[in-house]
Amino acid sequence: MSDALALISHLKKFGTLVTFNFKKDPLTKERTGLAFATYLHYDDVNNATTKRTQIVDKLKAPYNSIEVNIFSQKDKKATNKIKLTQV
Q1: Using CB atoms within 10 A of its CB, is residue 44 exposed (0-12), middle (13-18) or buried (19+)?
Q2: Residues in contact with 76: Cβ distance below 8 Å, sequence separation at least 6, in sequence order
Q3: 3-12 burial, b for 16+ CB within 10 Å, e for fewer?
Q4: pLDDT at residue 77 is higher than 60
Q5: Which three-class secondary structure state does DSSP give residue 65?
Q6: For residue 48, what is the enclosing H or E element?
Q7: N or C: which end of the chain has fewer CB within 10 A?
Q8: Which 3 state secondary structure label does DSSP give 5?
Q9: How many CA atoms, within 13 angstroms, populate the side-chain half-sphere of residue 34?
């Protein structure tokens, strides 16, 4: 299973995903260890962020530990987007 599918499978446990994307370095095209996911409902974000540091079972250590945070923009109070960082 690819890293992306493993992460998506992990995140689907918390609700309905609308989008998911990895960020890549513009020069090397390598993944930066940062990803964003958007859920259909705000409650799904709350479910996904109850534990900030999470272990993705289908990924091998040390790449299976992620930090999950609510992604907020300065002009928006509520959001249905989360930011994932490889720990």
Answers
A1: buried
A2: none
A3: beebbeebbe
A4: no
A5: strand
A6: helix 42-48
A7: N
A8: helix
A9: 8
User: Which amino acid type is present at position 8?
Assistant: I
Give the integer Cα–Cα distance in Å for 36 and 64.
Answer: 16
| pTM above threshold 0.90 | no
Q: pLDDT (tens digit, 9 = 90+) per residue, 52-67?
A: 899 999 888 888 898 9
DSSP 81: E
Q: For residue 62, which amino acid is it?
A: P
At 50, list the tokens. 């109850």
What's the pLDDT score for residue 71? 81
Which residue, among 7, 18, 2, has the nearest Cα to 65 in the 3D structure?
7
CATH superfamily of 3-86: RRM (RNA recognition motif) domain (3.30.70.330)
Helix, strand, coil in percent for the chain, rounding step 5: 20, 35, 40
Count other C-beta atoms under 10 Å from residue 29's C-beta: 7
